[in-house]
């Protein structure tokens, strides 16, 4: 069960006589760019309130309203676990009728150096595959021990073997000038209680991982107990000062009230909600949809103040990997697709929903990732192509460099290939990721829309947006010039990860028009171009290509590209013209049937459907007004997990458990069923465009022009509608009003 706050997340459970939890912190990147856990805490009590003859009293409950876990046991025992939203300190408190003795142990599996084995390196940024040309990494140990009446555990990055190898592989010039979150990164915890004293070091095995325990024990039996675990992560060369500051912060935080954290959570839940069939109970499918949507928001908020985005492949809530896949018997640090490599195709799905929830503070993380690495991307654009543009790849390490394996994947292995002109230095030599520079465009559009939706000052992101856009105009003109109509020739390019060596992929050209239009409408002060330039740039972008539907040539479909060489993955990227790029959908002037035919009648796209992980079918259904299908897919996607005990832990799907991008995609789909705001240049507010008649409830969502929309839903109608400002009432339409009526016939 998850709980968290600030930039820390815990997975909490009771097993036999133990209260256990893993601690994860955003930004805890080691030398290999693993996102390491800070450790596991094991708390026992004597007499045991969880003994078999007392289990009738056991209850573990997550209170998302106030952000804590409450656990009840025998002997009147009440435990509370919460994380301070301001300091990321972890608080554990207990009270009971009978005096008890407590033992708190920090359990670490990284007290010694460890040589990884394939495929253990997948948790690092050394790559998803072990190849002879790259080393299997060495895991450096943490420093763990007793100090100041507590337990101190930390990791400090010294040498950077991964970074050095990337610099050599990619011939990076002046690497010391590059932004690098691994450099001198220091992270850890201090566990302390005035009720406990140091005792023994222990050792053992949990699941399949050896650990060393550092125990604190009660000085005397008591009916009350409190423990604090202070955490911190920062880049520093002065480790001693960092340690002393962490210890002082932790001890000072012991007496801090939960009041400010409860107030934060209260304000957070007041921003937004979608509640469905509230009186129906846990077994009702609609109720489960609403509840698990709220749990997604909760998991995102546990990292509300983190420097780094919540990861799509488990977030802060991964656990022993063998419980997900028996073929990966590694430590609790393990996850598929790394902890320090960020994949835009997945990450974007966690951050698009935040525009409608009003969570600007959390959205900032996703955009800052690209804004912070943009100077590095500009250096790459200059180094490789002599252009003042951002060269941004799809799968980036947190330094902004392409992942070391993905950058040269075809040059690795037992049958290495040589680069050709189609894969010049700077471009991923990789069938999946080559020429996929456009996924960062989605974060660029989020940055621009944050100004319209929230009214926030987004000036710090404008440079990222403009230099990201500049790649497509300046690079493709440098390589290909313009066609006879004065349009860009966007080749070689990529339609998502699927349509490779593509000409004018629809996911790219539709997106460029949308981002440039939103930029022109935003009123921001430009730092590279100007209004005239962007109007001319938009005119140079080719139109989204169409084609006779494969398998139904009498119908017109959106084409994934004007042409392409081969298909690699299984993404129907032509549908990106519906979402994220909003060229087609309810209320738009384009022919909605083209999008519907693409999904249902294109024989190739029909093989690319699905309803797990990063797939987006339910979003497209909602935007096309296909209520029955949207409801069917969203009900399945947000149904309670049958694999894990917490109802919003699903996975691994394509990634890892818990699969956060599965829930991000679901959140977007559910929001679009309630409210759509993309039509007519983000001015229309369409309510219940794809809402089932048998769902009731309430909602509060945020729309462009700093608009808040809230109401109750009953019998397919919105009641007690409140829109702030009220002038936006004139922009509201309901259901399929003022739209082409969709048909899948």
Automatic annotation (TrEMBL):
What residue ranges are annotated as transmembrane?
Answer: none
Biological process according to GO: carbohydrate metabolic process
> Which molecular function term from Gene Ontology is one that the record holds?
catalytic activity
Note the superkingdom of the native organism: Eukaryota
The species this protein was found in: Cercospora berteroae
Q: Where does the DUF5703 domain start and stop, copy by copy? A: 1-274
Q: What is this protein called?
A: DUF5703 domain-containing protein
């Amino acid at each position: 069960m998850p709980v968290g706050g600030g930039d820390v997340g815990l997975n909490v459970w009771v097993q036999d006589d133990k209260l256990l939890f893993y601690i994860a912190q955003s930004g805890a990147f080691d030398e290999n760019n693993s996102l390491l856990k800070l450790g596991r805490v094991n708390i026992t009590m004597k007499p045991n309130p969880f003994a078999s003859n007392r289990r009738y009293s056991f209850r573990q409950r997550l209170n998302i309203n106030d952000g804590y876990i409450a656990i009840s046991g025998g002997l009147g025992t009440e435990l509370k676990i919460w994380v301070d939203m301001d300091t990321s300190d972890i608080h554990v408190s207990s009270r009971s009728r009978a005096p008890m003795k407590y033992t708190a142990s920090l359990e670490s599996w990284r007290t010694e150096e460890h040589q990884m084995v394939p495929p253990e390196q997948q948790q690092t940024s050394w790559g998803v595959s072990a190849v002879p040309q790259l080393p299997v990494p060495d895991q450096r140990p943490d420093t763990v021990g007793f100090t100041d009446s507590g337990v101190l555990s930390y990791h400090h990055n010294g040498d950077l073997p991964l970074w050095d190898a990337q610099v050599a592989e990619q011939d990076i010039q002046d690497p010391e000038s590059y932004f690098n979150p691994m450099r001198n990164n220091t992270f850890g915890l201090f566990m302390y209680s005035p009720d406990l004293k140091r005792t023994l070091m222990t050792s053992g095995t949990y699941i399949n991982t050896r650990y060393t325990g550092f125990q604190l024990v009660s000085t005397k039996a008591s009916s009350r107990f409190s423990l604090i675990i202070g955490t911190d992560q920062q880049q520093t060369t002065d480790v001693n000062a960092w340690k002393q500051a962490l210890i002082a912060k932790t001890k000072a935080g012991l007496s801090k009230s939960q009041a400010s954290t409860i107030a934060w959570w209260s304000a957070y839940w007041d921003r937004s909600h979608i509640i469905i069939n509230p009186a129906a109970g846990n077994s009702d499918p609609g109720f489960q949809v609403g509840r698990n949507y709220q749990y997604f928001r909760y998991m995102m908020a546990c990292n509300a103040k983190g420097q780094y985005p919540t990861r799509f492949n488990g977030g802060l809530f991964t656990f022993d990997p063998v419980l997900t896949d028996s073929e990966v018997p590694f430590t609790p640090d393990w996850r598929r697709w790394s902890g320090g490599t960020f994949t835009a195709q997945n990450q974007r799905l966690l951050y698009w929903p935040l525009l409608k929830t009003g969570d600007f503070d959390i959205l900032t993380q996703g955009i800052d990732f690209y804004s912070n690495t943009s100077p590095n991307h500009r250096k790459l654009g200059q180094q490789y192509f002599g252009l003042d543009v951002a060269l941004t790849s799809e799968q980036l390490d947190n330094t902004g460099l392409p992942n070391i394996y993905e950058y040269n994947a075809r040059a690795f292995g037992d049958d290495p290939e040589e680069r050709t002109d189609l894969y010049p230095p700077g471009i991923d030599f990789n069938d999946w990721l080559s020429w996929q520079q456009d996924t960062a465009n989605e974060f660029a559009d989020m940055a621009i829309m944050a100004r319209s939706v929230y009214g926030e000052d987004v000036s710090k992101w404008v440079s990222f947006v403009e230099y990201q856009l500049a790649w497509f105009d300046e690079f493709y003109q440098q390589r290909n010039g313009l066609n006879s109509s004065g349009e860009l020739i966007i080749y070689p390019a990529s339609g998502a990860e699927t349509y490779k060596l593509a000409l004018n992929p629809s996911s790219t050209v539709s997106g460029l028009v949308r981002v440039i239009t939103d930029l022109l409408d935003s009123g921001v002060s430009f730092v590279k171009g100007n209004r005239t330039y962007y109007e001319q740039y938009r005119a140079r972008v080719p139109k989204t290509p169409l084609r006779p539907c494969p398998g139904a040539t009498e119908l017109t479909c959106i084409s994934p590209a004007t042409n392409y060489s081969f298909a690699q993955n299984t993404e129907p990227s032509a549908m990106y013209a519906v979402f994220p790029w909003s060229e087609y959908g309810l209320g738009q002037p384009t022919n909605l049937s083209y999008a519907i035919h693409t999904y249902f009648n294109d024989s190739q796209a029909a093989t690319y459907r699905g309803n797990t992980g990063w797939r987006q079918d339910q979003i497209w259904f909602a935007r096309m007004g296909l209520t029955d299908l949207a409801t069917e897919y969203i009900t399945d996607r947000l149904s309670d997990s049958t694999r894990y005990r917490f109802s919003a832990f699903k996975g691994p799907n394509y990634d890892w458990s818990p699969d956060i991008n599965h829930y991000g995609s679901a959140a977007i789909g559910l929001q679009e069923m309630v409210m759509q705001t993309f039509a007519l240049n983000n001015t229309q507010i369409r309510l219940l465009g794809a809402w089932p008649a048998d769902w009731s409830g309430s909602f509060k969502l945020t729309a462009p022009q700093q608009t808040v929309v809230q109401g109750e839903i009953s019998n397919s109608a919105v009641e007690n509608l409140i829109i702030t400002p009220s002038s936006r009432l004139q922009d509201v339409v309901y259901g399929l009003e003022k739209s082409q009526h969709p048909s899948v016939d």
